[in-house]
Amino acid sequence: MKLHEGDHTYYIYIITNKYKTVLYTGVTNNLRVRLNQHKENITGENKTFASKYKVEFLLYYEKFTWIQEAIMREKEIKGWIRDKKIELIKTINPDLNFLNYLFE
Q1: How far apart are CA 20 and CA 60, in angstroms?
Q2: What is the DSSP track for 58-75?
Q3: pLDDT at 44
Q4: Taking 50 as the threshold, does the pLDDT of residue 17 lie above it?
Q5: Which residue did the predictor score with more confidence, 80 or 37?
Q6: 63 - beta bridge partners?
């Protein structure tokens, strides 16, 4: 796959619900807006995975310049088992704190 330099910053992110029982991995070019969308979807009638399990709390993110790299990384992480995702999260967030405040 040929990578083209992007004009933006892209993020992969892992969010959870308030009980930390579910992990959701996504990709976006605006993490602040995307986190707000997840929060709004919880109360809406949208029947997405994120809304069904009420995931809105940021645990982990990575920044990319190229969208292709972000998408490849998202797919890689989505293929992992939960324990491996938790270990990744703990590399930057050892206490599994909610990090939403970083993007408010």
Answers
A1: 13
A2: EEEEEEES-HHHHHHHHH
A3: 58
A4: yes
A5: 80
A6: 11
Give domain limits for the chain.
10-103
Q: Would you place residue 49 in the very low, low, confident or very high pLDDT band (cuts 50, 70, 90)?
A: confident
Q: Looking at the domain that runs over 10-103, which CATH code has it been given?
A: 3.40.1440
Looking at the chain, the whole-number percentage of residues with pLDDT higher than 90 is 74
For every residue of 11-74, DSSP letters joined together read: EEEEEE-TTS--EEEEEES-HHHHHHHHHHHHHSS---HHHHTT--EEEEEEEES-HHHHHHHH
Cβ neighbours of residue 81 closer than 8 Å, sequence gap 6 or more: none
User: At residue 78, does pLDDT exceed 80?
Assistant: yes
**Cα dist from 52 to 14, 44, 67, 75, 78, whole Å:** 16, 10, 27, 21, 18
